[in-house]
């Protein structure tokens, strides 16, 4: 079984307003999977320390950066997030010639790599080097879903890694990889390999591997990573099946180009793309957009703060984005944080996944109570939520990077305001 899910986007000058970079991602997962938004402080570690990722332990680095993560509540890694240095990362599932039953062997998950890149990379290129270095050492693999219906699914990964100056598209096949640097304009990825002949960095011996395995011969022309390593046909014009990775990739590319054609692409533009249901970028079927992120990365020297927007609830078309900004002693509260079962968590206990636990957080429960999946939306409720989002967007548009007091509780207060609307609706 293959779930078609997730879309990640980035827009850079001259497509964007005010020289900013705008990153966005929908995390499409099984409809009942809970996505939490958590903040993890920067930390220092003694020599010889290890970090326990979802399935395996690896050596810890001396210092990790502060991160904000949107993550499936059952795993260590994250679907997307950002760090204190203005790096944002999101990943995609891709199926390649190296996808198979061996992918279920417990290694590092693609989501672990998102978090590791953010905790260890001070800019996009550093995060790229972190991820690829660990990939070549540990590989990728392990069960990717807690839901037993999808227990046999694992996959390779692709990523967009962005900062305020550039973005990198990283696509992998097993422990092999290729990366494309994006310095201007727009770029998106979905559930298929998209790097062709423009390869700005690659794993050692990549062409030799492709030739040795019969994926490519020099007399066929320039090396094309997507053609060589993909199990799917190359991206083509026409009408691929609706909802497929190819369909969403082409639709997302068209939406990016449309919104950026006059050089004014902004946070609201990314909100609109991630809420687009006609393109299936906003998923409401087998895969559901259970979490969504948009990051505004301001240029070097700007007085404005980087702001990262998260839904923390399913379906961005029926959710609102709440702003987070890094600050000293930042507090996000507990409304978007799921229960922590510690060493009793069924993912940590062996054999794993022997029981199901409640991973819902307070905001998720309230959202599902007033906006259950599969039901017609409450028009009045959506209008109230949209008003709140618009008010918040205007309020933080000029947020100064030096306004520590406002940044400190920004996300927490936005969560509380949203919860008040849900409670008022439930009491009517």
Note the topology:
Layout: E1 7-12, E2 21-30, E3 35-40, E4 43-44, E5 50-52, E6 57-59, E7 63-64, E8 67-72, E9 80-83, E10 88-94, H1 110-120, H2 124-138, E11 156-162, E12 167-173, E13 176-182, E14 185-189, E15 201-202, H3 206-212, H4 225-229, H5 245-260, H6 267-274, E16 287-297, E17 307-310, E18 322-324, H7 362-370, H8 379-396, H9 404-408, H10 410-427
Antiparallel strand pairs: 1-2, 1-14, 2-16, 3-8, 4-7, 5-6, 8-9, 9-10, 10-11, 11-12, 12-13, 13-15, 16-17, 17-18
Question: Could you characterize what this model shows?
Answer:
With 428 residues, this protein is an alpha+beta fold. The protein is built from ten helices and 18 strands. The chain has helices at residues 110-120, 124-138, 206-212, 225-229, 245-260, 267-274, 362-370, 379-396, 404-408, 410-427; strands at 7-12, 21-30, 35-40, 43-44, 50-52, 57-59, 63-64, 67-72, 80-83, 88-94, 156-162, 167-173, 176-182, 185-189, 201-202, 287-297, 307-310, 322-324. Strand 12 and strand 13 (176-182) form a beta hairpin. It is globular and about 70 Å long. The termini are far apart. The model has no long low-confidence stretch (mean pLDDT 95).
